[in-house]
Each structure stands twice: as structure tokens, then as C-alpha cells.
């Protein structure tokens, strides 16, 4: 896989470089256009800056959300372009479409060192089409904008989409620094991780993490389970979980995992419960085995944080994916904060597996530099750890 450094060594001055970025940022609820977390924009800045400073004409493309293959104002990248320019410290021309007249005019007017951001790729049905011909036709239009293609969108490499998979076969292609770093980190987690190796998994559903649990069961020394998914495990042990999130169809699977893993799977011993899902709910901290009927668990409790912290003691490799509770609401943020702070104290290689975990680190004001690596690709990271082949990486590795 050729990387950005090789491209820069070859020279990009005066060349048009088409960059696939992951600018799929979250927005503040009920405040359209207000970006809640600009981490993904910041992550791609080194690649864009290096290309710009080397004299390339840079055309950036990204998706945002899940529009239905046609323009939708709710998912416009216009606010992202504004923030992108602020962080880049130089103008970013925003094209009002992806491959139409606005994009064509913006690319035609580009000069060396200039940057254009195309409108949301998913406003075009060809981006996500399962029909190779439809996807390929859109890829042809995108590829016509560039002389060279750089993929720095690790968060999208698990998708067989036009901008990720097909464009790479139409242009000389290179991996951006972000993609190369992610692959390096994930290889370190899968091929020969330093032990003890502790994995912390949260989030809402066991089904979302089942494949990665199966894949890591033979590698990890401990699997710490928090978040909404812990209640299906607790129910599988025979405990009542009140009105907590529960996947009934996963109970047998959880029983099997618990039987095979033994004491390597560690579950919370106490939880913060509430009488409703709201920031002003009545709350209590109870034993994980004594959740009252009608109440729902929304965070792990302080004893569980202490238990997880103890399990992290002496770890040499840590992978964390998924919050321990509903960290967006203050009464249910302490579990995630406590576990994150415990990870920062580990004397070893620590990885935050993107998605909500990365957002939580920033939202809770925890120093990002205290972790070995914060991934930008939650779903892509998990699929890599599961051993799946990722289409975007396959395309970059092809000659």
C-alpha cells in the first residue's frame, strides 16, 4: 500500500489530488448547522495541509449522515466547509453539488494550493449503489476531477462505495497518513498484542459487538462489558434487569460466551438506575443483581468503575469501544469518565476505538494525548478486528 509520503516525494505541485475524507461529524441536537464534535475534521488536516503546502490542487469529498441518494438540506456539508476553512487557516471553496455544474466550476477554478470541498457524496445514488455499473458511472465522474486519489477516510474503508472502492481503480492511489496509522494500530492489536491485553466494550447492543467478542475471546486476557449491552449478559446469568435495554434473542448467545470465557468476562457489580430516560430522572445506585422492576440501568456504578480499574492494572494493551452509559446526560456520565480516566493511567498501549468512545473523550474533557491512539473509524475498526476484509483497504493495496 503506497502512502502519502511516497506521493509527496514524487511531487504534487500543479496536480489535482482527489482526497476521500471522513467529515461525517455529529451536530448539536435541535441546532442545525452547529457541529458538536469537529474531531474528524481535525484528523484529516495533516493530509490536506501537506498536499496544499506542496502545491497540489486539493478536491475533498465526504459523506454526511444517511440521505436517500438525493439532496437533503439536513445533510449538507456547508457548515463543515466553514469549520474546515477555520481549522485549515485558509479558504475552502464549497461546491453546491457533487459532480454537477457547481463542482465542475469549482474544480476548474482551482489553483495550486487551493482546496475545494464537494457536497455530500450520498446525495448521489451512485455512491452507495450495490449495482457495479451505477456505482462505477458515478466513480467515473468523480475520478475525472483528479490526477491522483488519496484515501484518508478510515471510517469509511469498510464500505464498498464509489468514492472508497471504485475511484481507487481509476486513478493512481495512495493511503493518507490517517489510514496508514489506523492500519498500523489495528495490526498491533490483532497480530501480536503485548499482554496482559484488556478489552473494554460498551454501547447498547450485544449483537453489534458479537463478532468482535468472538474474535477477541481467544486473544484478550479480560473482556470488560459495560453500557446497555451488559444487561443482556446479566439477564443471561439469571438476574432481573427491570426496564433496562435487553436483547432477548441474544440470551443464549451470552450464556454460551460466559460459559466459554469464564472469569475473563467481567460484568458490572453495580449500576446507576433511573425511573425514566431523562437528565432530570430520579436516580439510584444499586447492585447489578438488584435492579428494581420498572427502573432502567443507564450507567455503571462506582464499584464497577473500581472493579474495571483494577482489571486494567498492569495491562500492556487496552482496546476500548463503546461508552459505559448514557454519557450525554450528566447523571449517567461518571461510568464512562471513570473508565476513560483509568485507561489514561495504564502503562501500556491504549486505543480508543472511535465512534461514541472518541466523542465521549472529547465531550468529557479528557486529554486526548493521554491515549496511545484514538481511532476515527468505529465500525471499520471493529470489522478489522473481526478479521473481515475491508473494501477500501483492498482497493488501496491493488496495483
UniProtKB/TrEMBL annotation:
* Gene3D superfamilies given in the database record: Phosphoglycerate kinase, N-terminal domain
Question: Is-annotated flag, keyword Transmembrane helix?
Answer: no
Q: Which reaction does it catalyse?
A: (2R)-3-phosphoglycerate + ATP = (2R)-3-phospho-glyceroyl phosphate + ADP
Q: Which residues take part in binding (2R)-3-phosphoglycerate?
A: 40, 122, 159
| EC number(s) reported in the record | 2.7.2.3
Name the InterPro entries on file. Answer: Phosphoglycerate_kinase (IPR001576), Phosphoglycerate_kinase_CS (IPR015911), Phosphoglycerate_kinase_N (IPR015824), Phosphoglycerate_kinase_sf (IPR036043)
Q: Which PANTHER family has this protein been placed in?
A: PHOSPHOGLYCERATE KINASE, PHOSPHOGLYCERATE KINASE 1, CHLOROPLASTIC-RELATED
Q: What residues bind substrate, as annotated?
A: 22-24, 40, 63-66, 122, 159
| Any GO CC annotation of this UniProt entry | cytosol
Transmembrane stretches, start-end: none
Recite the UniProt keywords alphabetically.
ATP-binding, Cytoplasm, Glycolysis, Kinase, Nucleotide-binding, Transferase
Q: Where in the cell is it found?
A: Cytoplasm
**Pathway(s):** Carbohydrate degradation; glycolysis; pyruvate from D-glyceraldehyde 3-phosphate: step 2/5
Q: Please provide the Gene Ontology terms (biological process) for this protein.
A: gluconeogenesis; glycolytic process
Cleavable signal peptide:
none
Q: How does it assemble?
A: Monomer.
From what organism does this protein derive?
Catellatospora coxensis
Q: According to its UniProt record, which protein family does this protein belong to?
A: Belongs to the phosphoglycerate kinase family.
Lineage of the species this protein comes from: Bacteria, Bacillati, Actinomycetota, Actinomycetes, Micromonosporales
Q: Name one GO molecular function term.
A: phosphoglycerate kinase activity
Q: What is its main location?
A: cytoplasm
What is the official name of this protein in its record?
Phosphoglycerate kinase
Query: Where does the chain bind ATP?
Result: 209, 297, 328, 354-357
Please indicate which superkingdom the organism of origin belongs to: Bacteria
